Amino acid sequence: MYAPDRESLTDQNRIPFLPSWVTSARAEAPEYVSFLSGAALLHLHHAISLDEVPMNLVRDRLALRAAEVTVAFAGRHETAAELRDAVHFLEPGDLPGPAGEIYLSWQRAVRRPVQANALHKGLGSVSSQLIAQSLAPKGRAPVEHAVSVLEECVSDDSIPVVAALILADAALARSLGWARILPVFALGLTTADLRKRDQSLRLACHQALQVAIIEILRHISECTRGVRDLAAVVPKLRARGAAGAVEVFLTQDSAAASALPLPDRAARRLCDRLTSLGVLRELSGRDSFRLYGV
Question: Which distant-in-sequence residues (6+ apart) come within 8 Å of 49 by Cβ?
Answer without folding.
Answer: none
